Fold each of these.
Amino acid sequence: KEFCQNRNYSIKSPETVSQKVEEIRERLDHARNTEKELVQWVEKELERLDYSSELDTPRLTHHDIHNSTRKGQNNLFIIDWEFAEFSYSPLEDLADILIDEQLSKEQSEFIIDRYRNLTKIELNDSVLKENKKLKILYQLSWSLVENSKLRENQKTPKKYLKYPKERKEKFNSIEK
C-alpha cells in the first residue's frame, strides 16, 4: 500500500471473498434474461460453496493471471500486472494457475507447496477446491454478462458463447 501511495497509484480497498460473491450475484442479475438455466445453476453452486477462507491481512494479487502467464522451459512467468489489487483471497491467483495451466501433478504440487511456504496460508485440498470453484463461478458470471451484452447487440462471436459451457465443464471436473 505504501509503495502505491509513494508513486501516486490508485488503490482500491481490499476485496473480501464475500464481496466477490456479491459481485457474482450482481452479474447474474444482468444475465438472467438471456441465460436463465446457467444463471440458476451458478446460483445453486454458489449456495453450496464454503467460501469462508478470508484472511486477516489483504495481500497483493495479480487478479487476471489466467491471461498473463507464459511458460518457459521449466518456468512459469507472470506478466501484465495492470489489474493487480489487494485482496483477502490471494488464493484466486493460485486457483487460476491450477485451473487453466497444463501442469503435471508434480508441477502443481511444487507450486502449491511453494505458495504455502511463501504465504504461510493454510492450504489443504478442500480449501483449494473451493477456491477453484469460486474462481470459475466468477469467470462464468463475467462471461454471462458479456454474452448478454453481445446478444443485445446481435454481434455474438461464437467463441464467447462457448466460454460459459467450458467454464461449467471445468467446474464439474473439479468435483471428480
Amino acid sequence: LTKLPRRYVARERLFLRGTTDYWASAMDGQPFFVVTKPVDPGLLIVLRESIVPRLKDDVPGQPTSDELATQPHLHRFTLIFDRAGYSPDFFKEMRDERIAVVTYHKFPAGPWDDNEFHTRRVKLVNGEDVDLALAERGTCLSNGLWVREIRHRDSRGHQTSVISTDYTSAMDRVAASMFARWCQENFFKYMLEHYGLDRLIEYGTEPIPDT
C-alpha cells in the first residue's frame, strides 16, 4: 500500500490525495458509466481513450453509414463537457468522427450588442419552460474550424458563451443541452453531502512500466 497522488479538489481549494472519476451521464444527470483514474491523464485523454470508444459502441439510435454519407452535417451523438475539455483540435477530431460537441467558449471575444439578443421560450431537460435571451454567430477557432457560438445574456447583462459543432439542432436546444450539465452538478452535490460518494474505501498498488 502507498499514498495516493495529490490532485486539486476545487470545493476544498486544497491539494488532497485521491482518485479521479469521470462520469458519463444522460442529459438529466442519470449516469451511464464511470471511469476511475488513480493517475489522472486529464479529461481530453480520457475522452479519447475511454469514453468516446465506449459511447460509439453503446449509444443507441445512431445513424447508419448511408445516412451519414448522404447528410454531411448529421452526427452520431453529442458530447457535452466543461472548459476542461476545450481544445479546437479535439473538436475537429470529433467532427471528423461525426460526433458533435457542446462546451463553454474558453476564450470568448468582447460582449455582443444587446440588439443581437432575442428572448426565446426554451424547454429545459426537466420539462420546465423558461425565457432566455439568446444570440448566435459563426466563429472561427484558432485551427480554422468554424463552429456555432451561442450566447445567453442574463438579467445583469452577463453573457455566457457556448460553442458547438452541432450544426443542425435549433439554437435553444443547444443552449438547453449545455445548461443541463447542472443536473449532473446537483446530483454530485447531493450524493457528496448525504451519501459520501467521494469516500475512498480502499486503495492498493500495482506495477507500471518506467515509461
Amino acid sequence: MHAQLNMDFQRKKEKAVIPFEYRNHLIIIRASLNGAAPRNFIFDTGAEHVLLTDTLLAEELQLIKSRKLAIVGADKQQQLEVHLVLDVDIAFRQLTAVSQNILLLEKSDLKFDQYTGVPISGIIGGGLFRYLYYSIDYRNQKIRLF
C-alpha cells in the first residue's frame, strides 16, 4: 500500500508550512489532488492513509480505481468499502507528495461538512508525513514540516 514518499519542497530550505483552520477540534488543511483546485481535508495525525470521501472529485479527476479493500473505521467496528487509487499527487502550498497511493471511499455517508461547517473532501492521515518531522502550532494555525 505504501508508495515511496517523494516530497518535493518548493522552497530550497528543507521546510514547509501548511496553514490550517481549527474547527470543532479538527484540523482542516487545503490540498490539491492531481492539479485540481484545492479542497478541504481533515488532517488526522492518528490516521495512516489518505482517504478521499468526495466521489464527485474522484470522477472529475478520472481517478482509476485499483483493487477493492475493506477497512475498519475510526470506531474500530464499522467496516468501510474502499478502492485503492495509485499515483496521486497531493499538493500543499509549499510541497507536493508525488505519486501517492490513496483510498477512495466507495460511498460516503460521512457528515464531515455538517460537523465542520465547510465542505470536506476527505482525510489526510499523518502517515503521509511519516518520513518528515512536523510540528503543529495551534496558536498560529500552522503545520511546520522539516
